[in-house]
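Contributing new complexes? Match this layout with zinc ion.
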Amino acid sequence: MRRILILATLLFATGAFAAPLKVVTTISDLASLTKEVGGDRVDVQSVARGYQDPHFVEPKPSFLLLLRNAELLEVVGLELEIGWLPPLLDQSRNNNIRPGAKGYLDLSNGVEIQDRPTGTVNRSMGDVHPLGNPHYWLDPANAVRIAIQIEKKLEELRPADAPYFQQRLNDFKVRINEANKRWTAQLAPYRGAKIVTYHNSWPNFMRRFGINVVGYVEPKPGVPPSPSHTFELINMMKDQKVKAVIMEPYFDAKTPQSIAERSGAKLVVLYPSVGGAKDSSTDDYFKLFDSNVAKLVEALK
Ligand SMILES: [Zn+2]
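Output block (do not edit by hand):
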């Protein structure tokens, strides 16, 4: 009995019995990458589901409980969550995960950002990307940069598990590099192809694989389609022989469907986040890319 007690004390002292670190992420992609690095030493939950528009998440009482108990909060930043996270954070009364606290991690600080504004920044006219494009997670190179930042933070919060996190990060890097080679090869025949996307969610993704985004169904990010913009878009698409219109699952298909029909392009639903599909085909970061790359290849054939 006494021996067991000593053993238990020893294990506890080395952190082997420590409960998994409670991590909350704003979007499911950060949750997936945190699981890659944190393994069974983290308990990760995402506020937004993969099939929701991350700019506009409807607050629920259960989110408050999640945030209240969190030891680490990971955000995309660049004002992606500005419409819904600040009031939730206020009401959760958890000072450990507020901006500036040790338990707050804004991942936009260490990644490559597209569409950085050069002039004055404002959200008038509805532009929801005033600080640069926040959809940066859709690039395997940025996934590595995100994972590195997560690893550093997990190490800081759980120093005893540092070797475990480091090993998992290295393993993730190997697997994502291999997968990236596969995705690049699959899309290689379509380099330079022109597409239109509904929202400007794909600048990092398309740039990575050499696909040209030449227009958007939204006149400005966050602004619904208008008849005059749609008319101009269709003419431009015919002119430039655009092959596909990409749509996120949370938009109404009516306008993009009609744009595709009138311009001779295909309408394709791609998932901008892990868990966006109803089945399990997008359940982690790797599957998300497998699914999107296969669908894009099919559309550009
Ligand atoms: Zn956006």
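Reviewers usually confirm one structural detail per submission. For this one: The longest helix spans residues 162-187.
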